[in-house]
Amino acid sequence: MEYVTLNNGVQMPILGYGVYQISDQAECEKCVLDAISVGYRSIDTAQAYRNEEAVGRAIKKSGVPREELFITTKVWISNAGYEQAKASIKESLRKLQLDYLDLVLIHQPFGDYYGTYRALEELYKAGTLRAIGVSNFYPDRYIDLVQFTEVVPAVNQVETHVFNQQVKAQEIMEKYHTQIESWGPFAEGKNNLFTNTTLQTVGDQYHKSTAQVALRYLIQRGVVVIPKTVSRNRMEENMNVFDFELTPEDMARIAALDTGVSAFFSHYDPQVVENLTGYGKQGLE
């Protein structure tokens, strides 16, 4: 496994396992156990995924020492604000059966996210959180937060894949020493990623799949990736991306796939923001 060093010196695996959309508790627990047994040491969950308890049970059953694991969760919109965020993180710790978290992110830049970030800063200084950051913060909101908070976000998790490569956003994050992390590294299969001819042609040179090439491309750009799958075989395939290296020519060919637009949604679309904030206000119970 390769690691990145966050802006506070904490080491984070560059490849982790995400549990988004694994809402069935028994399935999620099994998947996390499989992932850990395959060799994953970074697990990414969120309050909004409603599977923190399943992740916690898997961590406990895995038998892997806590210090070898890197566990991330995210504070949802309905828990925004200083007091609510603190209480929600305490609840996340209870569900995950952990004494500390390696990384906590603000899931979306809506509601009182400044109050949320103050809570994160306080818990970070107390040692309850080893690193703090944000998710889905576009450059404008990201820069605004950096300029008016004490602790620079260690991570910004944003949609990043071969069709939306976030090149400019990554440059801005690097300027302020924030690590870019990809959600949706496979674009959930959109734009026929798994049968893309460019990725297939590049992969054939190394006897690798399109998925492995897509992950390798991001890793070589220094992007942390957290691919999700419920298949143990796919987990193993996704892990097997450290035994080959793309050439500059390969990288350039894949860079040309960038459309510069989201494959999912844009915070600059008022309807999207109305939907997200409306859903967020409903709470998680």
TrEMBL record:
Active-site residues, as the UniProt record annotates them: 49
Pfam families the UniProt entry points to: Aldo_ket_red
Positions of the NADP-dependent oxidoreductase domain: 16-258
Family note: Belongs to the aldo/keto reductase family.
Matches recorded under InterPro entries: AKR, Aldo/ket_reductase_CS, NAD(P)_OxRdtase_dom_sf, NADP_OxRdtase_dom
Organism in which the protein naturally occurs: Paenibacillus borealis
Keyword Oxidoreductase in record: yes
Molecular function terms from GO: oxidoreductase activity, acting on the CH-OH group of donors, NAD or NADP as acceptor
Site features described as Lowers pKa of active site Tyr, chain residue numbers: 74
Residues annotated to bind substrate: 107
Alphabetical keyword list: NADP, Oxidoreductase
Keyword Ribosomal protein carried by entry: no
Coiled-coil positions: none
Protein known as: 2,5-diketo-D-gluconic acid reductase
